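Notebook B, p. 112. Complex prediction, attempt 2.
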Amino acid sequence: MKRILSVSLFLALVASPFYVASAKHGAAGCGLGSVVITENKKVHQVIAATVNGTVLNQSFGISTGTLNCETSGFTQKQVEQQIFVHMNFQSLEQEFAKGSGEKMEAFASLMGCSDTGTFGKVGKEKFSALFDQNTPDSFLEKMRFEVANNSALVGSCKI
Amino acid sequence: MLTRLRSFFIIFFLFSLFGTFSSAYATDTKKILEYQKLAEVKKLWEERYWILLLHYSKTTFGNWVSEADSSSFFLSKEGRNNPKSELLSAIEAFMTPASPPSGDENWMHPSCKFPERKRWIQEKLSIPDQDFTEVDCSRFEKWFATLNPKGAKIIFASYYMNAPASIFGHTLLKLDSGDPNRKEILEYSVNYAANADPESTNAIVYSILGLFGGYPGTFSLFPYYVKIAEYNDIESRDLWEYELDLKEEEVKRMTRHLWELGAATFDYYFLDENCSYHLFSLIEVARPSLYLRDKAPFVIPGDTVKKYLEQAGLVKEIKYRPSLHSKIIQKLRKMNEEERDLYENVMKNANISLLTNKEPDPKIRTSFLSDTILDSFRYKKAEGNSPKEWDQTYKQLLLFRSKLPTDYDDSGYSPITQSPHIGHGSSALYNEVGTSNLGNFLGFGYRAAVHDLLNTDQGYIPNSSVDYFSLKARYYQDSKKLHLEEFHIIRMLSLTPYNSLGRSVSYFVDSGADSSVYEKNRNKEDRKLLEWQALLRPEDLSYTLYRLDEISRSEKYERVTNANLETTFGYSFQDEFSEGPKRFLFSAQAGAKVRYNGKYDTNAIVAPQIATYWIANFDIFKAVLSLHYYTFSVYGIPDDYKAQLGFRYAIHANHELRLEAKAQRNYNEASFSYVYQF
């Protein structure tokens, strides 16, 4: 019965565009540690895809149980920030212009900043400089610089 | 002396070495056998938890078979079908040292690969730690520590009419960590999906294989923000989060089991063994006293959400995460007239100078408008509806916005869509009585899933229908015939309003069978024949007259069932941005219809069709008028049409009364029905 129904449903579906879910994990490791990003082409593809605004597929994730889990704390943090920024660049841009928002707050916590109010304020003030090159990487680099050197942020951020 | 001593030493050494080895070996084997025996006495493999951990289910013949389809998920060769042999093998494996085969860097000792199985067996048989073989499971431990699981949520991604794989919605699981500093969106979500490579798979292959279980389904974990970006931003689907009232230990058990599932693949079936079904399995591992899986033939994600809510106290909080599109609508509904006018003028040509060069006006909240316009630009871009030049405009507006303070309260919005748990049941039974020009009839119908156009919209996408496997049959009193009135393998109707945000296309697709009324030719021919006979054979006149009378009283028309395939596309219109309930919708569409019936000269006919819909929605009352016109005359066959008017009164979400009228070529009917949904 299931098969018959299946065939019939299929008939009705052929015409439409599909979102095909994929879950190939390449060398994604464990924990947010999936972030053995350096050698993982898939993750780069996703990032590229995201930046271009095309539909991202589920190419990076954390496979459960089967794969390696080699991360060193430092790299992991950096890469985590990088993925987050690439994935959410448009939202971040908008929330920075506004000076508040859930993704901005999550980003602040990834940067080790507990005082999201100040983080948002600084981000808004420096908006034009932070986003002038319009790439996630340049924004991230500038934000890291701010977090390390801005007198208002230095107190509340732990890198 | 020295030699003797030396040889003695060597002998002693060898002896002791042998002794150590053999005794260690003997104890281990002995221990393994002891524990296996104990497990046999306790019939441990019959316990529900073991059955759940190995995903066993009973076949029709009463045998066990695991839903997992990969051999790496089992420790015994017969493990897939034999819970006992799997359990005994597990005891042995956890107590036996093993090292990786060369070259396999992903190898793990069974104790590390199946930590929850080990924990449970240890607890059940009271095995002291030192009886297990010593292993280094740092990979698992690191993974577990990263997740640091403490709580769980079921996430429902609402129905998405623009991709058939999503028309039933989707569910995923979110693990909440015990880390108070980790933001919600940085935590992990567990997704179960068919593992297909979109690069090399086209839609047709995907749907066939997806329905037949041709893809291995696997679990994967993603940071929740990835899923938010995918659903909220890219597909514009609202997310509903149901926080489960699970104890920390229950969540930890489930998470350890999730790790074990890394070794498993399951054949993926869209309709029953799908994402929602496997999340049920996970929740049952967390709390084995729940029986979530054994129910309906189809597992519709929206329905599964109801099942969580039916368990008293299982869901403790429900949260709504609007999509980008919903956020825009929310803001638009909060605008005053001046603001909405300005918004519409800006959006027309992306002329932001109307806003940026404006004199301050107390009636206009500039930052509120800027944020709404920024959202709208982003939405249009994601939909592929914005010209390249707008990118620069968007940048300018961002810069403008960064210099403004926030002059509005960005909270207190009401949800744009409703959670599926308040919706009516997805299966339905229709019971009707009616009258027509072919006599009175009694009718019944069944729908496997999900929602028809006359149903209440709560919990579903308003002004849409997805009828999967539904049929209506009639018994006509006069002809004493049972007639298949309509049958839908799948019928989808999506009436998304056209507005300044997007030129959403509305569509209708139907496949299955419909009815039409056929005028019998034989009737006419017989009459002619008899008229000739009356002239030629006057001696039989009385008989001829009797026959003529019979023919004139016999049916001239016959209702026939046709194979049917049709589709239309068009636009719908609704006052979407104003506050308050949305009462009316109008839609106009054009498309084609294929109708097959051996009684037509051309058998299969493809004809253009036009259709319109008008909907009036007053919560418990709803009226739908639909008109379809099929131009079969391109084949020299008379055109057909279908005009339907229906009124619905909902006594309760699951109990409806309907009054309907239908007119087709050569046929009219009126009916009254009671619809029960479950």
